[in-house]
Amino acid sequence: MAVAIMVNAWASKILPKLETCILILHIGGFFAILIPLVTIAPEKVSAQQVFTAFENGGGWPTTTVSVFVGLLGSVFATYGIFG
Question: How far apart are CA 36 and CA 3, in angstroms?
Fold first, then answer.
């Protein structure tokens, strides 16, 4: 907390430049990961199959149970901020 107060008090003039540099870094990193993933993908499928076809590869009895089990990780990761 003290570090945040000091940065906001004494380094406030460089914060916009620092935030701009971090934004450029994030955008560059996004494309640095996205472009190789798209170009070296072994198999390309249609957009319809990507957004409408669901596979139950976990062996659960229904696709609904499979989806809810997959959501558990993200639910418990954010659960602590509400409690």
Answer: 38
